[in-house]
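In response to the reviewer comment on reproducibility (Comment 2.3), we provide here a single inverse folding case reported in full, input and output, so that an independent group could reproduce the run without further information from us. The structure tokens appear first.
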């Protein structure tokens, strides 16, 4: 009887053991009949078995817009990146910028310094070994100019020149000129054309002539290195007559003419 009772007891507990075994397999296996701790039933979507669109349910849960709207944000980010990529590409492909300084504007001011060679042209051939009475010398100027328009300026130049003579003396002159200048330009290049008139203090062998008339024409070519600085070459021709006197004798009029070639530096402000 005991064996029969024990056998009947095992048969009675067998369904319960099977139920426990089946439950364990469900929890850790395929998630069938799974409920959360609050007792809410959760449908089966074991890691990708269901369609991804089911994720839209999450939007309903948190009251946000549809998930597809977030896809639009992704598209926006991609478009933004594309925009910056295109902008960067255009920047990299852009040609190098070359600055062209439109030389001057009305109201600009200029300082000019020149230094070069003074060549007398009315006292015989000035080259060494020739019969010139006055030899090759030097000449330099300092000037200030104010631009009334983009291409026209007025100003003043003061200079100093010297030329040795065959007698071993030196002819010195210090001209002061009022100057008007037309200054056309092409790109960074300037081509000033000037005329000046003034007076010069002239000395030779202890004699002084003052005031001596000075007439001058000048042309130049300069390159605008920066907005403030330019450099180039100038050439000028000046006439300095001494009326009705030959160094104190008063017997004749003597006109000295000089040609100069000089380097030039200009500062604009």
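Designed residues, in position order:
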């Amino acid at each position: 009887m005991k064996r029969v009772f024990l056998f009947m007891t095992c048969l009675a507990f067998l369904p319960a053991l099977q139920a426990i075994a089946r439950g364990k397999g469900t929890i850790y296996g395929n998630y069938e009949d799974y409920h959360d701790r609050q007792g809410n039933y959760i449908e089966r979507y074991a890691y990708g078995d269901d369609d991804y669109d089911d994720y839209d349910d999450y939007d309903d849960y948190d009251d946000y817009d549809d998930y597809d709207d977030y896809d639009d944000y992704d598209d926006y980010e991609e478009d933004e990146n594309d925009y910056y990529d295109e902008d960067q590409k255009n920047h990299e492909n852009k040609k190098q910028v070359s600055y062209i300084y439109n030389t001057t504007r009305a109201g600009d001011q200029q300082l000019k310094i020149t230094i070069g060679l003074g060549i007398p042209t009315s006292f015989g051939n000035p080259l060494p070994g020739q019969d010139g009475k006055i030899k090759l010398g030097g000449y330099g100027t300092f000037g200030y100019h104010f631009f009334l328009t983009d291409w026209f300026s007025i100003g003043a130049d003061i200079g100093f020149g010297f030329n040795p003579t065959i007698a071993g003396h030196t002819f010195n002159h210090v001209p002061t000129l009022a100057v008007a200048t037309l200054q056309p330009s092409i790109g960074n290049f300037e081509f000033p054309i000037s005329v000046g008139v003034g007076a010069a203090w002239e000395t030779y062998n202890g004699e002084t002539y003052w005031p001596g008339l000075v007439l001058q024409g000048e042309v130049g070519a300069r390159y605008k290195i920066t907005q403030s600085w330019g450099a180039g070459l100038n050439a000028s021709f000046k006439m300095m007559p001494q009326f009705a006197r030959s160094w104190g004798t008063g017997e004749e009029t003597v006109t000295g003419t000089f040609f100069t070639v000089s380097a030039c530096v200009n500062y604009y402000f």
